[in-house]
Amino acid sequence: MSANKKARTQPPYELLYWPGIPGRGEFIRLAFEAAGVSYRDVAVESEHAMAVINSLISQESTGSDGNPPAFAPPALRIPGEGKNGAPLLIYQTPSILSYLGNKLDLAGADEAEKAWVLSHTLTALDLNNEAHDTHHPIAVADYYQTQKEEALKKSKDFRQARVPKFLSFFERVLKGNHAQGQAKFLVGSSLTYADTSLWQVLDGLQFAFPKEIEARKKDYPLLFGTFYHSVKETKGIKEYLGSDRRQPYGMGIFRHYPELDRQ
Amino acid sequence: MSANKKARTQPPYELLYWPGIPGRGEFIRLAFEAAGVSYRDVAVESEHAMAVINSLISQESTGSDGNPPAFAPPALRIPGEGKNGAPLLIYQTPSILSYLGNKLDLAGADEAEKAWVLSHTLTALDLNNEAHDTHHPIAVADYYQTQKEEALKKSKDFRQARVPKFLSFFERVLKGNHAQGQAKFLVGSSLTYADTSLWQVLDGLQFAFPKEIEARKKDYPLLFGTFYHSVKETKGIKEYLGSDRRQPYGMGIFRHYPELDRQ
């Protein structure tokens, strides 16, 4: 994007997500913050965020401005980049990150790296989804209390089988890329949206399952000894995490129910 | 890819997936078959498929040939396209489809369409994953029989809340794109990997939940009246589905447990 165009459409990006939780919107926010690119965050900046999102995912919508409907937030709106100069609307976290990664120089250096960055991001988001399902194993729209018994079983399997499977995998990714990435980057020798996305999941897991992760950290020295702190200290990310733009965890994907953690 | 290069590296693509089930490998197969591009299918063509896949996802692997390790199959190996002329290895279904879609001309006509094709594919794969979780709501590595009680609850929510939510969404996508796609294509005016991927999920749902889908078909006239049949009759797809390369459903993602269907 030329400097002229950037100036003309400032702020060029609009993030549409639920207010009140970091949620899946956080993966998009971290990409913007790492790149130092401004964006309008409807969840934080608009008093009408709920209405905006409810309209976005209306069961009556067939899309608008040449865009398809969106299944769920987050969505990204980019003025002027759609059909015939209309706003472009993209939904689905990995699809937004894939599009945005290229624009923000966070997608990898060549075609192979771009593929791996997307692959690792999808794997981090799978772990994110499984963390969500620990407190909602039966029905996403029902209360935790109605499925607490099943949540206890699901969490046990998640902590004992799934968490080590995923963490071991990412430890090996860092090891395989160590000559280039120095355990600071999953792919190549610079930050990508795979790094910021995995970081968010590791951070959320430490909030939701503090005892479990604390007990396992020593098994993944690259992940928790180098990678996690390195991403957290990255310019842009560090400032963001210290600002009031970073929302606290709450009743979203990562919830701290002590009974679901290691006892 | 130039004609020369194509001839030189024939067969250029190698699909790595578990033998014996269509599974997530099927989304990759359908893209190849729709494009009429040959590929080596390890699950079908090799006697050592299990060993190949177990090696691919070994808990010791840090990758090879400059590629990262793979978390799970499917993976795609493309000779000569990796670092320094090594084979390129990509894992994660949506990442493979995104890469392959561009090569096979199944990804959409421009940047906006490419984003939507990936987004809709991710949504179809979310539905695919939720269908899997109906029979494995607690622990993916345990037997169905150990989590049957929870599966009955999960399936009820899936059939009553999730299936109509997803099907209504895709019906509206077809409606919104009707002027171009004539209800035959989700995006634009030609076949994409979003179409073949959604088709596979609709087909699997009819196998796993025949009563539920039969009862709901009338609510989604574009999806089941036009789209499903149109994709099935597509050149390449039609021949594939009539061949012995198409494997039957079994103990994979889509399983027909009558007790989980509408009673």
Automatic annotation (TrEMBL), chains A, B:
InterPro entries per the UniProt record, alphabetical: Glutathione-S-Trfase_C-like (IPR010987), Glutathione-S-Trfase_C_sf (IPR036282), Glutathione_S-Trfase (IPR040079), Glutathione_S-Trfase_N (IPR004045), GST_C (IPR004046), GST_superfamily (IPR050213), Thioredoxin-like_sf (IPR036249)
Domain GST C-terminal: 110-251
Signal peptide limits: none
Superkingdom of source: Eukaryota
Residue stretches making up the GST N-terminal domain: 12-108
Gene Ontology MF annotations: glutathione transferase activity
GO BP terms: glutathione metabolic process
Protein name per Swiss-Prot or TrEMBL: Glutathione S-transferase
Organism, scientific name: Pyrenophora teres f. teres (strain 0-1)
